[in-house]
Amino acid sequence: MPPVTFRISRGDKTSTEFREYTTEAGEGMVVLDCVHQIQSESAPDLACRWNCKAGKCGSCSAEINGQPRLMCMTRMDMIDTSQPVTIEPLKSFPLIRDLVTDVSWNYRVKKSIKPFKPRKPDAPDGTWRMQQKDVDRVQEFRKCIECFLCQDVCHVLRDHHKHPEFAGPRHFVYTAALEMHPLDTEDRLGQMKHEGGIGYCNITKCCTKVCPEHITITDNAIIPLKERVVDEFYDPLTRLFRMFKPKK
Amino acid sequence: MQYQTYEHDVIVIGAGGAGLRAAIEASAAGCSVALICKSLLGKAHTVMAEGGMAAAMANVDDRDGWKVHFADTMRGGQYLNNWRMAELHAQQAPDRVKELEAWGAVFDRTKDGRILQRNFGGHRYPRLAHVGDRTGLEMIRTLQDHGIHQGIEVFMEMTAHTLLQESGPGSRVTGVFGYDRELGRFRVWKGKAIVLATGGIGRAFAVTSNSWEYTGDGQALAYRAGADLLDMEFVQFHPTGMVWPPSVKGILVTEGVRGEGGVLRNKDGHRFMFDDIPDNYKNQTAKDEEEGWRYVTGDKNANRPPELLTRDHVARCINREVKAGRGSPHGGVFLDIAWIKEKIPNAEAHIKKKLPSMYHQFMQLANVDITKVPMEVGPTTHYAMGGVRVDGETQMSTVPGLFAAGEVAAGLHGANRLGGNSLSDLVVFGKIAGEHAAKYAKANPASRVSDEQVDEAARRALAPFEKGARGENPYLIQHDLQETMQANVGIVRTENEMARALEDIQKLKARAANVGVPGNREYNPGWHTAIDLANLLCVAEAVTRSALDRPESRGAQFREDYPNKSEECSKFNIITRPVNGGAEMRVVRQPLTPIRDDLKKIIEEQAK
Ligand SMILES: Cc1cc2nc3c(=O)[nH]c(=O)nc-3n(C[C@H](O)[C@H](O)[C@H](O)COP(=O)(O)OP(=O)(O)OC[C@H]3O[C@@H](n4cnc5c(N)ncnc54)[C@H](O)[C@@H]3O)c2cc1C
Ligand code: SF4
Ligand code: SF4
Ligand code: FES
Q: pTM surpassing 0.90?
């Protein structure tokens, strides 16, 4: 492969600019390899996050030619290198430096969601029995690697900056995993309706498209959650039943 | 020197499985806890673990139990293990798995709704609780999501740089000096007890499955604080890493592939693992391919296929095939799971369900569809059996108040770790370390932190900026170290080569003393790499010196100049400690503690 030119966003919250770097892209290399090469050749202080280099930790999220992606899972031979390849940080979060953003808001949102609360163990050995088919759905959600790419593309956060009132697709997935957990007894639908702002989501499915774990965020997590919220808060019959029936 | 100060009862360094579990335990004991980690929470190495977590729950085969697990662990470790740790581990692992379930983990299920367990190398029965091939993610997320509600104060993207002590090396720890990666500001955490849970050392080698974090920080911090390191020669080379394309070389291919029926072949299509089966495993290994297949499909009367022998052995067999010119095009061998379509219907869907991340990894990174064609694999640096020497009962190191758990600690695995025994190690000993750190913190009042020690550490940390761009490039030094370790202290070792590595390490140390970085302290990876260098060099030297002092082949260490086990060497562990005020590294042979009679009997019974 001939040398490839990158335009990488450099700078901090005060100002940013694109700087160009050229490096050799060998066979099978991914974007993160090129960034590392640039670090060791010409920009030792170029800031980026990464850990596993195998698509498992969700650290290396960035926007490559405008597409939100994991840098470690984006092969150079998949992208157009006839033009300089741009790499930018995620846009939904405050910039720290270069490709690194402050994602701490996500951690605060998660903490505000009520934790897992299992029913009492009911198997003779002091644990529980669960069938595989009953956990398949939850296991899909639990594949999430917290890369926050879905948070990055969601227009409610990216364009409308509704961070204080909208939990974002990642946390709908998290909540759905808890709500659909066969052992869980907690009720988070009120949280989703109010603090979580699930009503802001208008099902554009942009989040689902970028998820590197192929979680069907919108269809499997958000829509069922929305339906439960509707049932719980707007359906008079359900409300009536709720008065007599323990939750779940 | 300006710095921000915090005060806690217990400081946990590292937020992988071990650190999180320790923090949860110390917090439950009523201590205030600081949890410090280099990366964001939930990104630690534990997230990468694939195959599963070993615990003798006997959900799949009721002949299993802690005694079998204990004996398997000791045999895998070639009896250099700390037997008390191996005992506690085997006894407590099932409870730790169940606890994860109670905290929200969703393991794969058996037909009757219990936690499913899978086969793995060196484990006699199906023993690994798992979630597809992303068990580590399940573990870390469960601990993280539980941990954030336990009142633990988390310090993300902060690096521990130096342990502070009452009166220099060997004395009680008083706190931690470190910096935040975001702005490069210095911080001091004062504490009564400290738990190291910083993981391994894989970055000392060129081909590794480990991330940038694995620079041996915990081992080096402990060593400089005067704590003993143990068994540093035992570095596990996992038999199956990716070999092609070059940029992914080293990335792990889980042993789960073999547990699900994957077989190893050389370029002639020969299943070479049947050629060399160690004597002490003969009566537990399948006689032919048919029996091997019956084993992986759950036939309790069948023995395991030789692909599931211990990692050290499989890695050496692969090495032998490649060296003999029988390897695959890119210098590995073939690992074939696609062949199971001859045996079962829907093989393609089955593989995708059981090994989803492997499927994606090969599809995305190598353009290889593992449901159709074999993978190319070869050994990769994977795990450090050695590390901080701890007391088997409490996980305290030889420095008062300093504890260690998880991969950074030594003892449980002896000369070779069995797959799946790490994830269980993390939660069993994370809990124990947290409990005893809390006890220690309650029994011992806080001690004063010395300003001179802080200033000294800060000066060392800032030195690379003085040299600036004129200094040595930290990335190049790291690269050269990785090359020499890979070439000279790798999977096959000799005295001459290791002596060369030691010379190189001395030269690299001199270069590292002149390391320089441009830019400023804000999120500057060049600076971080420069700081980590001192730790990498320290552990690289410890590995090399220990390996030189063990003239035999045992477990993970293969010495071409001493290809056999030696009776004499079966009687000691090797300890690394600083002498001459830290100027020199010394290795000492520490005789093994005689094993308790009842445990000895278990080993004898299980060998039958
Ligand atoms: C690809 C792969 C697959 C694996 N699969 C399995 C498996 O299937 N089964 C199994 O049992 N084992 C497996 N292992 C091994 C196992 O995952 C690790 O040994 C284990 O996760 C280590 O956990 P830990 O808690 O000790 O440390 P880690 O999870 O590595 O965490 C280390 C923590 O320490 C922090 N840290 C390090 N240095 C510093 C510092 N200076 N200051 C502050 N913080 C610091 C890091 O940020 C991190 O939070 C696998 C390993 C790899 C690499
Ligand atoms: S589907 Fe909803 S959550 Fe997802 S991107 Fe669209 S608006 Fe955001
Ligand atoms: S749901 Fe998908 S895109 Fe969103 S954080 Fe998780 S893995 Fe990333
Ligand atoms: S580095 Fe872990 S997902 Fe890219």
A: yes
